Amino acid sequence: MSKLDRVFDRYTPTIGIECHVQLNTLSKLFSSASNDSRDSSPNTTVNEVCFGMPGVLPVLNDGAVERAIRAGLALNAEIPQLSRFERKHYFYPDLPKGYQITQLQEPVIVGGYVKVDMKDGSSQKIRIHHAHLEEDAGKLTHPSGKNVSYVDLNRAGTPLIEIVSEADMHSPSDARAFAQELYLLMTYADVTNGDLYQGNMRFDVNISLAPKGSDELGTRAEIKNINSFRAVEKAAEYECLRQAEILDKSDLVVQETRGWNEDKQKTIAQRSKEDAHDYRYFPDPDLPPLIIEQSRVDSVKQSMPTLPNDYRSSLAELGLDISVVNSLLEDRDRANIVINVLKMSNKEHATRVAHWLVSVYEGRIKELLSTERLISLSMLMSDGELSSTSAKQVLHAMGRDDSSPREIADELGLLQNNDKDELERIISAVLEDPASEKVISDIKNGNDKAIGYLVGQVMKASKGSANPGLVNKIIRSKLF
Amino acid sequence: MTISDVRKRIENDSVQAVVAESITRAKDDMHNALIEIVEDRAIDRSKELDQIDIADRKKLPLFGIPFVAKDNILTRDSHSTAASKILDNFSAPYQAEAIERLEQAGAVCIGKVNLDSFGHGGSTENSFFGPTLNPHDKRRVAGGSSGGSAAAVAADIVPFALGTDTGGSIREPASFCGVVGLKPSYGSVSRYGVIAMASSTDVVGVLANSVIDVEAVMRVVSGRDSKDSTTIDSPYDKTAQHKKRIGVIKEWFGNGVDDEVENAVTSTISRLEGLGYQAEEVSLPILESALAIYYVIVPAEIASNLARYDGVRYGNRSENNELKTMFRSSRSAGLMPETKRRILIGNYILSSGYYDAYYKKAAQARTLLLRGFTDIFDQFDALVGPVAPTSAFELGHKSDPLSMYMMDKMTVPASLAGLPAISVPVKTSGMPVGIQIVAAQNNDAALLTIAEDIEAVNS
Questions:
Q1: What mean pLDDT is reported for chain B?
Q2: How far is A61 from chain B (nearest CA, A)?
């Protein structure tokens, strides 16, 4: 029993997640400055509004509203007709106006849930408390050995939706599964580009432990700014161990904000509740209330992209293992290929293509996009002209060569020989070979496995081109 | 000096000559009205304007007219300081939408004028550049916070000036300096490029020597702007019906109002009755709370809007190796005492545990005030009363903040409710006094017809 299992024997963790999702809009939340600062020098995707210059005013980006509606629909949530922006104040060099425009009392997305397939095989609904629109802050860097800090405001004003879950999760693996499903939902709904390396989605994990069976929740710690699913799970596991150790000694867990140190695989205390800011929220007088009519929500619903669960139901008839389905969903292009193969041919081909796609490394997928070519490759296998190993070889070659799968297989000498006359000739030669005598008598005496030796000899003689299934059949017909 | 006087001068001479004269008067000014003269840009623009064909000039409603702008309104090729130390080196790479529209209409900005720093005050004594003096008596204040705008018009430096009004900052100096001062309906002029004081009541308005000039400028600067989400269609494009039912606000007379002011206002009302106006006393008790509402809501917004002046990106920084100390000392050194007072009050009001007791309550009372006005405007076309309880007082006379705040008693209600209001000079034997007219939201055009009648009965 692992250390962690011993913790779960005695304590139940309760976990809630807050997730910051950067929206894939062209411009920022309240200004026309570019929202794409990849490969940009510091402070180049900023204008006077993101820079917090005197006299500037925010104007809400309607594209961000569109994405908020899509996010709300993906989360099965309510989109209230009226929501409001508020100002959250604190002084920091990466916050140009001295306040962040966000939503507090009346957010744009209320309630909802995410259906998550947990590691233990169960399916759970994790409820969403609310989600709100807000602007991101800039970035600070502190070069070592220098007595200065640099401020880069490229990210300042990037639109975010902060999704706040209820504390419905009770294990680190549940937290990871939720984070992954949320990621799928937000990328499939075209809310975010979902580049985790660029910080497109950042998770804050709230976690507390309570003695097993207790109705009362323990004191929680919040681990901020985690940007991978694995780290969500690892940080939650670390916290379970850390908090259990404190509780075991009858000490008190301190309510605080902690950070995840990837190198040390540890959470580290950052700020206790006592140092919490007084953010002095109040309604932003520069922005009228955001009104979203039901008719707009309805029209977004009409043009809503296909969501992960729609794919799951389309794939259900293939009876694929859940790990294969989830692997396909990691890249929507792959899931789409399988669905298209299913539409254009049959279950057999779709299932085969699904397995190919999860075993072929990701970089190749885009080059293999043609559904027709995949179907014809699969047909070669169904017709016994290609072995499954050879099919994978052809699959790899298809990325470099746009000839038909049959031509590629032929060129590589992988096509199986189904020419009965020729096979019979080779088989007769093998059976007549004196070296086969002993094996043949073994087989006739009931050692059926020994037939493999004969098949092997035929394959060798045919330089690997014979269809082993057919060879087996012919040998049997000749011996018995 | 009026806009039509200047037009005649341009016809007989040139824009450049008129602008140069205006600049000379600005340089010779003895009232500390100006913070900066924008000479190069003004001369360059006037040369360009002189090149325009006579026929094309008619398309520019303010062709060649020089003006000044309050220094919290951003202009190209000049500093924009808000009369503060923290921004005394600040130059914006963009300019206010109102300035942009004036320039497109042919007007020429010749200078930036003084104010109470960030608009915080009613006398222009709270300026980092020293007080502006009243052109009618240099021992007295010009009023504020648009004191430089009012003084520049009263001293005939320019025929009109842009000001801003958050709680009376155009109307009070207009009254003190004997010029017309209009605070339009909230949202009728873009606030883009205007250094924010209190976003929910800030408006850009005009000070000039006649109502017709105010109107000419408003037609140019007003209207929707995609850069300001709170703007509305221009209420100055409407044709107003000339209605004559006026309510005389009971709460704005007696109690603290000087006899000289009260007499000037009541005699004007009698003269209006001579023109067929029906005047009737009306009471709106919640007006007694307006000042309290204002001095909760407005400091809260000030504290928030001025948070950006932290020394990090622009403006003056007091260098320090420790971040919080850098913030603190930059703001301590760069902001005036009255500004600090309002920031402290505002942050207190918004802090957790006090929000409901102060901000929320004030916001609810503000809604009641709005409703009270709406009901009154069912019976009246406009409301009248004094602008301020007194005429211009002597410099340094009001040293405690509360007595200064009391001067705003009659101007803050229209600000809180977003209503158009104007100060028009009335006849007095001593220092100038203005009468205030307030109309229903977006009834700015009707307000101006009444203002013109007041002008007529006082001429």
A1: 96
A2: 11
**Whether A144 and A194 share a structural domain:** yes
Per DSSP, B119 falls in state: G
Listed residues A364, A393, A411: the one ending a domain: A411
Name the residue range of residue A232's domain: 3-295
Asked if B245 has any chain A CB less than 8 Å from its own CB, the reply is no
Q: A144: which 2 tokens?
A: 């070592």
Amino acid A12: pLDDT: 96
Q: Over the range B310-326, which residues count as b (16 or more CB within 10 Å of their CB) and which as e?
A: bbbbbbbbbeeeeeeeb
What are the φ/ψ torsions at residue A399 (nearest 5 degrees)? -70, -30
The structure tokens 């298209």 sit at A340
A223: which 2 tokens?
Answer: 């681990």
Which residues in chain A have their CB less than 8 angstroms from residue B74's CB? 54-55
Q: Is B145 an active-site residue?
A: yes
pLDDT tens for each residue of A360-372:
755 565 555 578 8
| Rounded CA Rg of chain B | 21
The pLDDT value recorded for residue A369 is: 59
Give residue-wise pLDDT tens across range B301-332.
Answer: 999 999 999 999 999 999 998 999 999 999 99
A6 backbone dihedrals φ, ψ, rounded to 5°: -65, -30
- How many domains does one find in chain A? 3
The Cα–Cα gap between B213 and A113 comes to: 61
Q: Is B70 designated active site?
A: yes
Q: Write the CATH number for B155.
A: 3.90.1300.10
What digits encode the pLDDT tens for the residues B141-182?
999 999 999 999 999 999 999 999 999 999 999 999 999 999
Q: Give chain A's mean pLDDT.
A: 91
Please tell me the total number of residues recorded for chain A in this structure: 480
Amino acid, single-letter form, for residue B379: Q
